[in-house]
Amino acid sequence: MLTSPNLAVAFVIAAAVACSPRAPEPWLTDEPTAFALARHERKAVLIDLFATWSVSSVALSELLDTPGIRAAFGADFVPLRLDVSVDDERVDELRARYRTQTLPALVLVETDGDVLARVEFLPDRAELAATIAEAARRRAR
Questions:
Q1: 14-72 pLDDT per residue, tens
Q2: Cβ pair 47, 106 in contact under 8 A
Q3: Which residues contact 133 (CB under 8 A, 6 or more apart)?
Q4: Does any domain span residue 20?
Q5: For residue 85, what is the DSSP state?
């Protein structure tokens, strides 16, 4: 039985859980799944093409994982991270499709293929946030 003090504690715990920020959605690694989810949620796709051997692409991936940046793109973009560490036909096809040959490579794209923004260097936090915000504004037009 919940007494008044126990009820108050239960209420505080429930409120804390309900008000706590949601963890960001995990990065998807399957391209068809990411695009299907983006269509379903009426979002675009933020594609992080990274290689484990590329210091700058690993640094960009880490920057994308920071809470402030994740919050900047979470409402408008489905996160898709594609490992291009091994040079093979699949990677060649991805690079050709997204028209990128350098790392790091970040492409923000509508589900119909319209590129909203592209980053092919290691930006600082402010530059990255501005690029994401501009891509989101382009979607709103």
A1: 444 444 444 556 899 999 999 999 999 999 999 999 999 999 999 999 999 998 898 88
A2: yes
A3: 72
A4: no
A5: -
Residue 123 covered by a domain: yes
Decide: 19 and 52 in contact? Cβ < 8 Å: no
Q: Which amino acid is at 88?
A: D
Rounded to an integer, what distance in angstroms lies between the CA atom of residue 109 and that of residue 128? 15
In a domain, 78, yes or no: yes
Q: What's the CATH number where 51 sits?
A: 3.40.30.10
Q: How far is residue 10 from each of residues 15, 18, 19, measured CA to CA in Å? A: 9, 12, 14
In a domain? residue 6 = no
Burial of residue 110 (CB within 10 Å: 0-12, 13-18, 19+) is: middle
Full residue range of the structural domain in which residue 44 is found:
25-140
